[in-house]
Input
Amino acid sequence: MCSIPVFNTNMTRTSVPREALLARTLVELADTLVADFDVVELLTRLTDRCVEVLDVAAAGLMLAGPDGELRVMASSSEAMRVLELFELQAKEGPCLDCYRSGKPIVDHDLAMPSSRWPRFAAETLAAGFHSVQALPMRLRGTVIGALNLFHVETGEMSKADVDGAQALADVATIAILQHRASLEAQVLNQQLHHALNSRIVIEQAKGMVAERSGLNMEQSFSALRTYARNHNRRLVEVAEAVIAGSLAPSALGSAPRVAPAPSEPT
Amino acid sequence: MESGGSRRERILSLLVGPGRGAFGTKRLCEVCAEATAMTGAGIMLMSADTPHGSLCTSNKMSDVIEQLQYSLGEGPCVDAYYQDSPVLEPDLVRPSSPRWLAFAGPAIEAGVRAIFGFPLQVGAVRLGALNLCRDLPGPLSDDQHANALIMADVAAQAVLVLQADAPPEKLGSELGAGADFHYVVHQAAGMVAVQLEVSVGQALLRLRAYAFGNDRSLTDVARDVVARKLRFDAASGEKDRLP
Output
């Protein structure tokens, strides 16, 4: 479902007004903020909703570890070309600028030769995206990462869409920081570190599922998520069980096979 | 939080920067102590699929601490490894709740007043723990804590690089490249683990060893595995070529 962003957006936009979808999404996300919630699943769902509700082709969340380097935490697409656009931004790109400045960063037309990020612009264009936006994930002066939105078209995002995206980024920030009464640096660092490591656990499990089942990475991720949801378990726990051998990849079911192969945005 | 890219780079330059001499396990432990401003540091390997033991210690104090934890089976590293989370004891003489009843006495005798354990992990791969000790009581500062988390990541990567028998001249670029930041490497490790029927940790070593042996970057090799252009099982003949 997360692999057909443009199509998805068109479908939802014709049936339900964006404001209603956004409100519904915020309620849905708030509803998952229970004591022991699944941070990777929540953030992945949030990026999926960005694509469905806002007029964007792909969305990703990047978090800063204790070293201040940005890492991908969740993406609306598990396609490698999209993940690598996020990974690249540990070195240059709108997410890095946004994280460092704490301010929204936008580039309406990446094809302009004056781009601030030559390598990022070239690879983003090659992937079929023409404009990009990064919104800060911040709470009371602490910036923990950025929400990144990619568009197929050039041009500015509407003010309403930017506000909607920032609201989603704020929910993600609160989700990550909610376990603490204060913004104590050591606890925050430890939590971000732990969250980023759990994403690596999931990548390792995706590889095992892909090899055993012949699925691609996106389908493998979807199989893990579907199993976790159906069995009311956290995604990272399911991934750990696959790696430990206590859950066979074949037990994940065949649901992801109906998912379409990743499509190019253009 | 200070600008962290430089925090990681500072640690790397302590490890493999110019004028730092040959890289080895001893240097790794010395930098662990230096970067976190501790009296001593040590790295314990505890994973199921490599020999258990002390990889290195920076000085006599950390040496004693590691030996105690091995012989007694308790202490901050043991807890950090099994709890999968940092274990902090800022005052070993007057702990807020009694712990390590066998370990604490001899550790205090060795001069330790504060001790901290940080797990060494790469995703689900748990390698062991980083042990930091100090001859004065007191909590870690925010800076020391952040540096310890990064140090544990760098140390975990260094352990994998060393275990894959990387040529010494490649260690610096290997650690600097931060290949562990690339998810494709971990996806490939999962695939290779299934192909070779080994643990994900072993698969990460095989991937690295292959990359060294063929003078390619780990990320490139991983991309080929994920694209199903390269396999590591017996059918590919690759298995025989590997150490």
Notes: The beta strands of chain B are 40-45, 53-57, 87-89, 114-122, 125-134. DSSP finds eleven helices and five strands in chain B.
